[in-house]
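Q: What structure does this chain adopt?
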Amino acid sequence: MPNWLHEENARQLGYRSIAGVDEAGRGPLAGPVVAAAVVLPAGFNLPALQDSKKMTAKKRSELFAVLEGSVSYGIGLAEVAEIDGLNILAATFLAMGRALRALGKADYVLVDGNLPIRDLALPQRAIVGGDGVSYSIAAASIMAKVTRDRLMDQLAVMYPYYGWERNRGYGTREHLAALSQYGPSPAHRFSFEPVASLARRYA
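A:
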């Protein structure tokens, strides 16, 4: 379960505004990648807080509502054109940087993953499995995941063939079957397979 160890270590180094950063949506075939940066207030206590992937959608939404009204946070996106024009890793770093700029108050960053955020001026630490061990990163994982799910719900209304309200753009059997039948939409990532191959077929 997440704890305060990494935040406390940063405080012992003299930092006071420690942001957890995580993303949602690196793997899907469609939609943006979304990042969140969260600074939890001193003494914040939310026992149910953990890695968003271990929660039901209902529980994530409940905790999102609590966090939204209780913490400082920023959200950043990289759209599909940026994902295709850069690559998914660079686009993820772009979204994370935007989330931190939207937050605007961090002096230290804890980021989920094995790589630090590229071109970030702030001191930072990358933590593999960070959303399972850091409260701040766990909170960011919830904010990013719920935000992206809601964006995919909106895109599902615009492009109803692919079942994005259920699969969130991941390459499920349902999604792949619709891709084969209808071809890619403007919200698909054309740098990803099999979208790229299908785009050539439908060109």
